[in-house]
Amino acid sequence: MKKLKRSSRLIDMTQYLIARPHTLVPLTYFADRYQSAKSSISEDLAIIKELFEDEDVGELNTLAGAAGGVKYIPKVSETRSLQMIEAVCRQLSQPERILPGGYLYMSDLLGMPSSLNEVGKIFASAFSGREFDCVMTVETKGIPLAYVVASYLNLPVVIVRRDNKVTEGSAVSINYVSGSSKRIQTMSLGRRALADGSSVLIIDDFMKAGGTIRGMMDLLQEFNAKVGGVGVLVEARDEQQEETLVEDYVSLAVLSKVDIKNRTVIVKPGNYFEKE
């Protein structure tokens, strides 16, 4: 790359870092890329770090030493996260979203890139302090959400299938009990999809009783893998509901009431925003 003016260098460096979250970039790489001294690069990174913090873009962590460098960690503050989720709750509280069985229509929300990016960044913030090898979800509407979260954490995505696909080779299949319908269902995962002993972040768009997530957790045991975290966009929670099959999870929104007769929906921010 030809030598750039400082303003152009700052823009290019910012774009480079944002496109590679959770990736350690050596200072020597930037020095060679822009044909500049390390001292100049360090000054540029200090400016970018301050900008990221002021604009609530995330953190820019610098590691000293010969093997050091700089790493961009996408994060959003709790205040801004709450504002984002309150907007999502207002959308989901629209009476016309009520579906048979007390479910909500969420496909439009999960299909909107701007909404998904905001939600994905909140999940990335919630789990930024943990180490994962991949993000896992089941083949439902939650797949786009899982990919957004994975992009912010710089992780691959593993998709659990409802049935085995020939294109994925030999697979492990288990039966599980759906938490809401109490029906026996099947899920499958290709043996090559997950390395032995992996740490997995499970992401799902909706959780009622937790049967599907519990099924994924049981499936992971067949791969000698561990659940490093569970994130749910919307959980259903009411006074009459039995306890969920999942205990430790992060929810961003709670569906607390669906009155089909009176066409009333109440959606509030989830346990991520609850103070201990």
TrEMBL record:
Span of domain Bacterial purine repressor N-terminal: 5-74
Keyword vocabulary terms for this entry: DNA-binding, Transcription, Transcription regulation
Ranges of residues in domain Phosphoribosyltransferase: 112-242
Coiled-coil blocks: none
Keyword Protein transport among UniProt keywords: no
InterPro entries: PRTase-like, PRTase_dom, Pur/Pyrimidine_PRTase, PuR_N, PurR_Bsub, WH-like_DNA-bd_sf, WH_DNA-bd_sf
Transcription regulation found in the keyword field: yes
Binding partners and assembly: Homodimer.
Cross-referenced NCBIfam families: purR_Bsub
Similarity section: Belongs to the purine/pyrimidine phosphoribosyltransferase family. PurR subfamily.
Protein name: Pur operon repressor
Annotated organism of origin: Marinicrinis sediminis
